[in-house]
UniProtKB/TrEMBL annotation:
Keywords: DNA-binding, Transcription, Transcription regulation. InterPro entries: Homeodomain-like_sf, HTH_AraC, PAS-like_dom_sf, PAS_4, Tscrpt_reg_AraC-type_HTH. This is AraC family transcriptional regulator. It comes from the Bacteria. Gene3D superfamilies: Homeodomain-like, PAS domain. The keyword DNA-binding applies. One of its GO terms (molecular function) is sequence-specific DNA binding. It holds the Pfam family HTH_18. Residues 146-244 form the HTH araC/xylS-type domain.
Length: 249
């Protein structure tokens, strides 16, 4: 409940741009607002740059599908709908977002509903995104899985079974999956696949190694399995991804 002091201050402040300038000044933090249709209304300078855009006009009215693989954009939109339909916040959800090299990697996202001026209806959603490593300091559940996640990123972790990973974490397989479901919204096995795909995407974009070689190096059983999983999660084949990245993403 706002006080008279707060109300008078914000009425005097008037323009929204003063607070937006503050959001622009924060390093490695991405802010955005969307309307009821999940179209971008505003993004801070860091997010605009991360999406490869020049200015705010380029992002206004855009959908996530214009920047991200279909599966990723669909997940973002589903979270938007949940927040707007329930009025509940999403706090410290771990999901993929572009890193500084335009590769999908783990980040931590929080979203909250945006209300009309009189508070009678939800008119959109606002959110903040931080890198996974930076966000761990603010997300205790994610911190609990830090060692497991870092192990999964290694070659040994990619080869390990979920049972071996659970044993390493001194958890039962069921406990491990429950923790991953709570933090990442997916099972430990799905997270492991997603992590290997993220690593493979980085290799596709940053090297000229063959797709078969990249599939083997990231512990996929064969190139066909790798291509099928990659298309499912990234919305394009490994070759299409490599070509799109070479064209500038």
């Amino acid at each position: 409940m706002s006080t008279d002091l707060q109300r008078q201050f914000f009425e005097q402040m008037g323009t929204r741009h003063q607070l937006q300038n503050l959001y622009d000044a924060l390093p490695d933090v991405f802010f955005f607002t969307k309307n009821r249709d999940s179209r971008m209304i505003w993004a801070n300078r860091q997010l605009i740059r991360r999406l490869g855009l020049a200015n705010e006009n380029d992002v206004v009215g855009a959908y996530d599908w214009e920047f991200f693989p279909t599966e990723v954009a669909d997940k973002y939109r589903a979270d938007d709908r949940y927040v707007m339909e329930t009025g509940e916040q999403i706090r410290n959800r771990v999901e993929v977002f572009y890193d500084e090299t335009k590769i999908l990697d783990w980040h931590i996202t929080s979203k909250m509903p945006v209300y009309s001026e009189d508070g009678s209806e939800i008119i959109g959603v606002a959110g903040v995104i931080r890198s996974y490593k930076e966000g761990q300091r603010w997300a205790a559940p994610a911190s609990e899985l830090e060692d497991v996640v870092e192990f999964m990123r290694t070659s040994a972790g990619a080869k390990a079974t979920i049972e071996e990973i659970a044993e390493r974490a001194q958890l039962s397989t069921r406990q491990l999956n429950r923790k991953f479901q709570a933090v990442f919204g997916m099972s430990a096995r799905d997270f492991k696949i997603r992590t290997r795909l993220n690593a493979a995407a980085h290799d596709l974009a940053s090297s000229d190694r063959s797709i078969h070689q990249i599939a083997m190096e990231n512990e996929f059983s064969d190139q066909s399995t790798f291509s099928r999983q990659f298309r499912k999660h990234m919305g394009m084949t490994p070759l299409e991804y490599r070509r799109s990245y070479q064209r500038g993403g």
